[in-house]
Q: What sequence folds into this?
């Protein structure tokens, strides 16, 4: 009988990219500068579509609450600070290499939105990455 090392569940490059895509979709569908977002929809069509917008707004609030709570609990304040500094230095390197244009404040707002989505993506993947790197399992709230 061969003993194999168990693979960490739900984590790998594909799962990280899936979670990152989900958080970026959430952030950029809430607000973006193209004019097609939940905020713009609320501003323009609230009086006509409020029956559809109310449950959608509640859904977005619940998603943000859950994702921000997971990010804060996984990374803690120092980890959030390190993740923001990493994402900021990455954004600076991309702007400095002229890969990402930075001509006005709209470009800076877009970069900031991507950084916020990236921060939440890192936050929701951190526990799985920590188990994969160190082998330690993080367990919270064992008491009922």
A:
């Amino acid at each position: 009988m061969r003993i194999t090392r168990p693979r960490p569940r739900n984590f790998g490059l594909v799962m990280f990219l899936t979670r990152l895509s989900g958080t970026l979709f959430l952030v950029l569908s809430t607000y973006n500068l193209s004019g097609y977002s939940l905020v713009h929809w609320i501003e323009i069509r609230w009086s006509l579509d409020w029956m559809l917008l109310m449950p959608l707004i509640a859904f977005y609030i619940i998603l943000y609450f859950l994702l921000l709570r997971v990010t804060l609990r996984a990374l803690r304040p120092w980890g959030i600070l390190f993740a923001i500094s990493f994402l900021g230095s990455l954004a600076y390197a991309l702007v400095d290499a002229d890969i990402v244009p930075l001509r006005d404040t709209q470009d800076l707002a877009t970069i900031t939105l991507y950084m916020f989505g990236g921060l939440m993506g890192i936050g929701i993947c951190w526990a799985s990455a920590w188990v994969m790197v160190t082998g330690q399992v993080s367990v919270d709230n064992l008491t009922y």
